Recover the amino acids of this structure.
């Protein structure tokens, strides 16, 4: 079952932690609309299942350390995943039999097909915000848990909380390089797209800053 489509409270907790990162019990409770006690019960249950873990955050000044909850690697298995052993075998097979250049050409061809498909949906929107939101909707359908936030300075943030092709991207960084190129292509020449956070570079998610070109 897709975590994002489930109404079970424990799955809602997992979805919140995936989107927001390490969170306090109170923050989890607020996201579910339940009491701190109820949220703590769900969290302890998930901890027993090996899906969440506790860590201690020490305040910068005086005060008691606070407990933060985060997902374990096991929890990632609950999210949509579009790679498997076959995909990794194909990457390795192409690289071994045909060389690195051939593998890059295959990935680039895939990106061009993605761009053509996304442009048909995204470019129907005149306003940049509407285009970004349309792109986020399409990426969520592909398993990326994408959402749009205001950056506060007129720019927009496109945030992808999950990478359904993470293992494939680790096997070949070209997947990540072409993602940035894909967004620039699909959003149009009037959009400036910069990647500010990258999951495979140690970030908690992939985050893109999108603003109108001057």
């Amino acid at each position: 079952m897709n975590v994002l489509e489930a109404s079970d409270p424990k799955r809602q907790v997992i979805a919140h932690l995936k989107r927001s990162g390490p969170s306090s019990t109170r923050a989890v409770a607020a996201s579910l609309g339940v009491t701190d006690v109820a949220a703590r019960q769900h969290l302890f249950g998930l901890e027993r299942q090996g899906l969440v873990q506790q860590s201690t955050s020490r305040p910068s000044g005086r005060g008691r350390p606070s407990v933060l909850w985060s997902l374990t690697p096991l929890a990632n298995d609950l999210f949509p995943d579009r790679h498997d052993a076959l995909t990794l075998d194909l990457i390795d097979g192409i690289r071994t039999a045909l060389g690195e250049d051939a593998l890059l050409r295959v990935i680039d061809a895939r990106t061009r097909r993605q761009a053509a498909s996304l442009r048909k949906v995204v470019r129907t929107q005149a306003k940049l915000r509407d285009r970004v939101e349309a792109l986020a909707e399409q990426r969520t359908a592909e398993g990326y848990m994408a959402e749009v936030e205001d950056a506060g300075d007129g720019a927009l943030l496109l945030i992808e909380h999950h990478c359904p092709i993470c293992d494939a991207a680790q096997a070949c960084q070209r997947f990540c390089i072409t993602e940035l190129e894909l967004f620039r292509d699909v959003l149009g020449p009037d959009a400036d797209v910069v990647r500010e956070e990258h999951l495979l570079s140690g970030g908690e998610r992939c985050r893109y800053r999108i603003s109108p070109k001057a």
User: Anything to note?
Assistant: Helices lie at 9-20, 25-32, 36-48, 85-98, 100-122, 128-141, 166-171, 174-187. The first helix runs from residue 9 to 20. The chain is about 50% helix and 15% strand. The first strand starts at residue 52 and ends at 57.
